[in-house]
Amino acid sequence: MAHRPGSPEPREYNPYFEGYISRAREISDPVARLAEQLEEVLSLLNTLEPATRLHSYAPDKWSIQELLGHITDTERIFAYRLLRVARGDETPLPGFDENAYVVSAEAEKCAWGSLVQEFACVRRSSLLLLSNLPEAAWTRIGTTSNHPTSVRALAYIMIGHVEHHIAVLRDRYLSRSGN
Fold first, then answer.
1. Which of 43, 71, 82, 176 has the smallest CB count inside 10 Å?
2. Distances (CA, A) of 53 to 28, 47, 70, 154
3. Phi and psi of 83, rounded to 5°?
4. Residue 141 CB neighbours (<10 A)
5. For 120-129, what is each residue's pLDDT tens digit?
6. Are 34 and 130 in contact (CB under 8 A)?
7. Domain boundaries, the chain
8. pTM for this entry
């Protein structure tokens, strides 16, 4: 089944997320794109050499393992927000400190295969959640980080967030490491 909720309007999300939304705005079926993106990301992650995974492109920047942990944690948070808004929960949902989450996660101590599998499981869970949404849920609006946020905006933000970080991975990590 195709999911074509239409692109979110600027009033449906925090302006902070415009960069992510703009990476996904032209997508007509966000669920299909999330599924395609999963396969693309897994393919890329499976090419990374062990020495590269702990690489950081600059001091005080995350390693690739930390980056993957961040992508996974953030997807999980976006999916939770999406669930709450889709179900009509009007409780304002707070933001989170991504850097504190990365430090607390200690992703560099995790097995690479486990991190990759965790991302895949979280993304598949997001896909099932979105696939089973009633049509009316896509345009429901809740409050996240003190801003009105729609379900469809969260789906597009999920796509754009991963697109952004994969572009950073390719441009700043892999182009310098030779991987």
1. 43
2. 33, 10, 14, 29
3. -60, -50
4. 18
5. 999 999 999 9
6. yes
7. 30-177
8. 0.95
115: Cα separation from own chain's centroid: 15
Residue 41 structure tokens:
């990301």
The closest of 61, 23, 69 to 45, measured between CA atoms, is 69
Statement: residue 171 has pLDDT above 60: yes
Minimal CA–CA distance to 161: which of 11, 10, 18? 18
Q: Which is it for the CA torsion 94, 99, 100, 106, positive or negative?
A: positive
Which tokens hold the place of 112? 């690479």
48: confidence class by pLDDT, cuts 50, 70, 90: very high
Classify 93 as helix, strand or coil. strand
Fold classification of 30-177 is Four Helix Bundle (Hemerythrin (Met), subunit A) (1.20.120)
